[in-house]
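HOLO CASE FILE
Compound: F7E
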Amino acid sequence: MKTALIIGISGQDGSYLAEYLLEAGYAVHGLVRRASMFNRSRIDHLRLATAEHQDRLFLHYGDLVDVTSLRRTLKKIAPHEVYHLAGQSHVGLSFEIPEVTCQENGMATLGLIEILRDLDSPVRLYNASSSEIFGAPPASPQNEETSMNPVNPYGCAKAFGTQLCRVYRQSYGLFVCNGIAYNHESPRRGENFVTRKISLGAARIKLGQQTVLELGNLDARRDWGYAPEYVNAMWLMLQAETPRDYVLATGGTCSIRDFAIAAFDELRLGLRFEGRGVDEIGRRTDTGEVVVRVAARYFRPAESLELVGDASLVRQTLGWTPKITGSGLARLMAKADFELLAADL
Ligand code: F7E
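Model generated. Tokens follow.
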């Protein structure tokens, strides 16, 4: 039986990956942070006594930045595969807490690959890199050869971790792959990311639980995919003969405005935008009520305005092709949130 360690198992990607690996017959270990409140809602269903594979799921207290406990856990488990998905993942917040962001997304990655270098048995590592390493890219779409040019502390930390993984692969022959993943979302996304904020906001407005949704830059465009499809790519990367970096993207983009229009439309809420910049508003087409407002506080000091990935390499080499994109994703998320909230009523 193969054994995997997921660092960041309680996050969106970690929870989908745990499901995927359990289904594939793995013993799955997850590193969880100690906190005064449990933060395991995304994996609770896998831990129930009645859950199909609960006897192959093991949680360990630890922290990515606590190198000693990480080393101890890795030695004890001796996994075949490690998926490094943990860290401060909010780009906007990285301007507020740059040092924590760099410790968790940069230095901790170095700490991890140093431990892996010393392990007796060979281990394969997936490192969650990000399209934010490109920041303001010299070319569009971006691929594995595009130079890094991050524009925020998060992107800088990810660029540091990504490059170190490359260096350790070249210098020590470690089996390390960077997944340069573009935005990937789902109904399990945290509410401080724009897609979930929109899908939940639309559902609450539909149910009369909220009147206005405040957003930041509506002109930003993102290459949005569906998280469960992305964890499949993570696994495929570690099954390949040779370790490589891959861009994981859909190849299409959608603006925040269009994502909102699709999410609201799914719930039969027509949305019409008027005005520009911070004065832009979104009205319901049936009642004329203002339901979307732009708030300056959600703008970032610097913004990657449009990032779009060229995922030809992963498609040709590993046969991975994402199916759900932009507006389809907005509809899927709005529907899921509406059903979730309606069930609670
Ligand atoms: O912002 C704009 C915002 O916070 C997307 C992470 O997974 O993907 C994610 O980072 C865009 C930005 O994601 C609001 O300015 C407008 O242009 O959902 P987000 P992100 O920053 O793209 C990358 C690939 C990662 O690696 C990250 O870990 O939406 N935007 N209005 C807003 N963003 C937020 N959060 N809230 C707003 O109200």
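CASE NOTES: The longest strand covers residues 124-130. Residues 89, 91-92, 130-132, 182-183, 192-195, 197, 215-217, 220, 222, 256, 298, 300, 303 surround F7E (CB under 6 Å).
CLOSED: yes
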